[in-house]
Design brief:
Elements (H helix, E strand, L loop, with lengths): L1 E2 L5 E7 L6 E6 L5 E6 L4 E2 L4 E3 L4 E4 L1 E6 L1 E2 L2 E2 L9 H12 L2 E9 L3 H14 L8 E2 L2 E4 L21 H8 L6 E6 L9 H7 L3 E4 L6 H10 L3 E2 L15 H7 L5 E5 L7 H10 L6 E4 L11 E5 L2 E6 L2 E4 L4 E4 L3 H10 L5 H8 L1 H6 L13 E6 L6 E5 L3
Parallel strand pairs: 1-5, 2-6, 8-11, 11-12, 11-13, 13-14, 14-15, 15-16, 16-17, 17-18
Antiparallel strand pairs: 2-3, 3-4, 7-23, 9-10, 19-20, 20-21, 21-22, 23-24
């Protein structure tokens, strides 16, 4: 029999991703999750009991690729609109996200450094909402042929000199950088970035499987939006994606909006990737996230949002305006994976990609409660403590 120390809350009969059967979640006086133990284990304690009746309990989501929200694109950040970061952080918290990486797509070096500086100045002041975990630079060292919606005039060669120019004095704020590894003819850039503590993600790339494997050997550990902006899988040349999903130490982000990748290909991806251990969900959401469908400015161009999908005037897919946890609901709705896996892909897996702590010692305030309707099978969530 386990006799626990004094706790403030005893959450019982919860299903927790990564744990078998029903669990007891014990919250200590600091509001942190201290223990998770099976309900089959005898326990004595006098903390108030919350019975979640078999529902799934998880931490909130972590979004490693999100380009903006509420009409603000992160590359457009400047001191004059820095207050948008607080509003966006609160909005993301309200849609189930605990932490995120503001993602800066390809733009001028001046814009990149101004936006990073604005985020860096905001970080010490943040007191509420989804936590900013650092910056994701998606570019500007990308392959012209796979640039997608990234403006060609701002693409840069992949050299240490160009990387230093882009990072300036803010390397410590950048957590992830997406680059096309085949552009590095020296083999020095990825080791240099890793020496700065920056996670290297491969994307917007024409890399062959051999080129991708070389980048993984140099220290790259992630892939940006699997299938999108990279060569398709081919039975004689598996390419970047084939090399990634068969590599035990590489984790791939993917978008589950039904537009960027069809559900059938997502099913193939999940089955091929070590039972989804090498995958995590991202939103890839753009500035109109949280706003209705319509036409919105996007750098010097415009995007049209219809049913949560954003495209340039020429039809080029540029992103979504759907929150991260919609991807969880879609995976379950499409029958691609079970509820536990779907939840983990948005909560546990991105934390693993950033080497963040798991559920133990996390604030109980971050917990989500997931419920599935018996008739429609629709999956919904809410903050356990509102």
């Amino acid at each position: 029999m386990l006799k626990a120390r004094q706790h403030t809350l005893n959450i019982i009969n919860g299903r927790v991703p990564g744990y078998q059967d029903l669990q007891r979640i014990l919250v200590n006086h600091q509001g942190l999750i201290e223990q998770i133990i099976p309900m089959t284990e005898e326990f004595t304690g006098d903390a108030p009991v919350l019975n979640v009746a078999g529902d799934w309990i998880s931490l909130g989501g972590v979004d490693l690729q999100i380009n903006g929200a509420l009409g603000c694109a992160f590359p457009d950040l400047k001191p004059e609109n820095a207050q948008m970061l607080a509003k966006i952080s609160q909005f993301l918290w309200d849609v189930g996200v605990d932490g995120f990486l503001p993602t800066l797509v390809t733009t001028s070096v001046d814009n990149i450094q101004r936006a990073i500086a604005t985020i860096a100045d905001f970080l010490p002041t943040q007191t509420a909402g989804a936590k900013i975990l650092g910056v994701h630079l998606e570019g500007p060292c990308l392959n012209y042929q796979k640039r997608g919606a990234h403006p060609a005039e701002y693409l840069l060669p992949l050299t240490i000199e160009q990387i230093k120019k882009v990072l300036g004095d803010y390397a410590h704020v950048v957590k992830v950088i997406t680059l096309a590894p085949e552009l590095d003819t020296t083999g020095e850039v990825i080791p240099y970035l890793r020496s700065l503590g920056i996670i290297v993600s491969l994307g917007h790339s024409q890399a062959t499987a051999a080129q991708a494997q070389r980048a993984f050997n140099q220290g790259a550990t992630m892939v940006t939006h699997a299938f999108n902006a990279m060569p398709p899988l081919h039975h004689r040349e598996p390419g970047l994606l084939g090399a990634a999903i068969t590599h035990p130490d590489v984790i791939c982000g993917f978008i589950a909006d039904g537009e960027h990748v069809t559900p059938t290909m997502l099913q193939i991806l999940l089955r091929a990737s070590y039972q989804a251990q090498g995958l995590f969900l991202v939103s890839d959401a753009l500035a109109p996230l949280g706003l209705p469908d319509g036409v919105y400015p996007w750098d010097s161009r415009e995007i049209e949002v219809k049913n949560g999908t954003a495209r340039l005037a020429d039809g080029t897919l540029s992103g979504t305006t759907l929150p991260l946890l919609i991807g969880v609901q879609n995976l379950v709705r499409w029958g691609i994976c079970d509820i536990e896996t779907a939840i983990s892909l948005a909560t546990n897996s991105p934390r693993k990609a950033l080497n963040l702590p798991g559920i133990i010692d996390s604030p109980a305030a971050n917990l989500l409660r997931w419920q599935q309707d018996e008739d429609t099978k629709e999956l919904t969530w809410q903050r356990l403590f509102c």
